[in-house]
Write a structure and sequence with these properties.
The protein is mostly helical. It has nine helices and no strands. It has two domains: 82 residues, Orthogonal Bundle (Rna Polymerase Sigma Factor, Chain: A), CATH 1.10.1740.10; 89 residues, Winged helix-like DNA-binding domain superfamily/Winged helix DNA-binding domain (Arc Repressor Mutant, subunit A).
């Protein structure tokens, strides 16, 4: 354990600023648990808290050159967590309004068979889109979006950095969205796109 005033802590932050992955992992393991509980307390959802935690550390890695060694790194992390929680609730509000619009044009009970067929066709399109992805993007997509692994878990399995996992995932989701959009599907596609985009920053 170390504090913000600990010289060892400053040394780890300096290594992080220099792009040292081992320093990033050390800081992740040191701060991830208390940050997770803080996020869970704020958003009242364990799964969302975990996803926000992964995105938080991706932001830390992406903006590592902006870290000030002499300032409290813990306070810096908690500020990011608070901002992400606010963004999360804003996103929920937007999705709620969008869902209201979708419900107005969703199939009625008499159209259940047609809706099931559309869902099946949409799943086939999704499978096709995933199959077309380059190997690393496909693996990142499957691990994070289908198997539900965190960026750090996927990074360990793929032997790359969490930031690289994030980059592969963003490009994979964009490619899948484009494939689905080109299919001309309506409600089923929109629902899938919402699901795919949920946890991305």
């Amino acid at each position: 354990m170390y504090s913000d005033s600990d010289p060892v802590h400053a040394e780890v932050l300096q290594r992080l600023k220099a792009g040292d992955h081992s320093a990033f992992e050390e800081l992740y393991h040191h701060y991830s648990k208390p940050l997770y509980w803080k996020l869970k307390q704020m958003v009242k959802n364990a799964e969302e808290a975990d996803e926000l935690l992964q995105n938080l550390f991706v932001k830390v890695w992406d903006k590592r050159d902006q870290i000030h060694i002499q300032q409290s790194f813990e306070a810096y992390l908690y500020r990011i967590a608070q901002h992400m929680a606010v963004d999360y609730f804003r996103k929920l509000e937007r999705e709620s309004r969008l869902q209201e619009q979708i419900s107005k044009i969703s199939p009625t009970t008499d159209e259940d068979a047609e809706a099931q067929l559309m869902a099946k066709e949409t799943q086939q399109l999704l499978d096709e889109a995933i199959a077309k992805l380059p190997e690393q993007r496909r693996r990142a997509f499957v691990l994070c979006k289908i198997e539900g692994k965190t960026y750090l878990e996927a990074a360990e399995l793929m032997q790359i950095s969490p930031n690289t996992v994030h980059n592969h995932l963003v490009k994979a989701v964009q490619a899948v969205k484009q494939h689905l959009d080109q299919s001309g599907r309506d409600i089923g596609i929109l629902a899938l796109l919402l699901a795919l985009a949920q946890s991305l920053p």
